[in-house]
Amino acid sequence: MPSILSVSGVEKHYRSGLTALGGVDLEVERGEIFALLGPNGAGKTTLISIICGTVTMTAGTVSVGGHDIVRDFRAARATIGLVPQEIAIDIFATVWDTARFSRGLFGRPPHPAYIEELLRDLSLWEKRDSRIIELSGGMKRRVMIAKALSHEPELLFLDEPTAGVDVNLRRDMWALVRKLRDKGVTIVLTTHYIEEAEEMADRVGVIDKGRLLLVENTAALMKKLGKRRLKLVLQHPMTTLPAELADWPLELQADGHQLLYTFDANAEDTGIPGLLRRLGELNIDFKDLDTERSSLEDIFIRLVERA
After folding, report:
1. Poorest-confidence range of 22-31, 118-127, 172-181?
2. Is the backbone of residue 23 left (phi > 0), alpha (psi -120 to 50) or beta?
3. Does domain 227-294 have CATH number 1.10.3470?
4. CA distances from 142 to 28, 98, 138 (A)
5. Structure confidence at residue 58 (pLDDT)
6. Is the dihedral angle over the CA atoms 187, 192, 193, 197 positive or is it negative?
7. What is residue 216's three-state secondary structure?
């Protein structure tokens, strides 16, 4: 199946000499949730703005749903829904009129039943006659999504969708994104919340300083680059690590009450049996142990530092 989004050699240079994008290649498959990760200023919003037609690229080509965004702008733009970081809606319009009017802007015929279904899915139906100014911040963000989906796009861009919202609303938004994907909408989200990408995305792209460092299936990336940690809670705290433990990458934590060992879970020999034997030989007792895997945040930091 052809990709719904194809980005090839996209560059963006400014007269000031700033290079916002330095040659980006990316393919997004239909029906997936793709997360674009990167620190502030990495080029995430610039790339999305180019795809959506609000910023002009210096070089490269982009096609959406088979439509070139330059030669066939109208068809390409009609395929896209965009939820920007900033809340940009008429605060005196009602929720219903906002969604209905946005649909008309794309030349779509009136479809009250679809707008009703959309508002119900977004938990906005009870607020349909409310003016935007009367809504909470979280509800306003839902209206932004309703506006972006009103013309039934195939590809939805969410630029930092949960920035500035509380944890409960963030999880509601995650559930909403999954529901949209189940209905056939392809979703590209930018975020600097690592747990957001880890929780939702099928694939992850890491961008930094205008260059795409890596694109990988989320689970495969965790398996390939993720480490695991063995945490030992010591019976008696230690001030320093004995020289006899120098063969293991160990770290003292919690004022010497915890011993942390980082290892590769995919390696044939993790080193754990030998470590535990050595601790026994040195009469270093522990009262509890636990293992945990590296988070996507750890992987992201290592990739950016390496680049």
Report:
1. 172-181
2. left
3. no
4. 24, 12, 6
5. 96
6. positive
7. strand
Question: Tens digit of pLDDT for each residue in 13-39?
Answer: 999 989 999 999 999 999 999 999 887
Alpha helices in 123-217 (DSSP H): 137-149, 167-182, 194-200
Handedness of CA 66, 71, 72, 77 (dihedral sign): positive
β-strand pairing of 33-37 with 203-208? parallel
Nearest-angstrom CA–CA distance, 141 and 95: 11
Both tokens of 44, joined, read 């995430």
Inter-residue contact 87 to 165 (CB < 8 Å): no
Domain ranges of the chain: 5-223, 227-294
Helix runs in 87-136, H state only: 95-105, 112-121
* CATH number given to 5-223: 3.40.50.300
φ/ψ of 259, rounded to 5, equals -115, 120
And the tokens for 82?
């965009």
CA distance 285 to 279: 7
Rounded to two decimals, what is the model's pTM? 0.75
Q: SS3 of 284, please?
A: coil
11 forms beta bridges with 22, 59
Q: Between 135 and 228, where is the model more confident?
A: 135
CA separation for the pair 176, 120 (Å, rounded): 12
Q: What is the C-alpha to C-alpha distance for residues 147 and 241, in angstroms, rounded to an integer?
A: 59
- Does residue 122 contact residue 145 with C-beta atoms inside 8 Å? yes
Identify any residues that bridge with 231 across adjacent strands, giving them in sequence order: 260, 290
SS3 149: helix
Tokens standing for 250? 């160990």
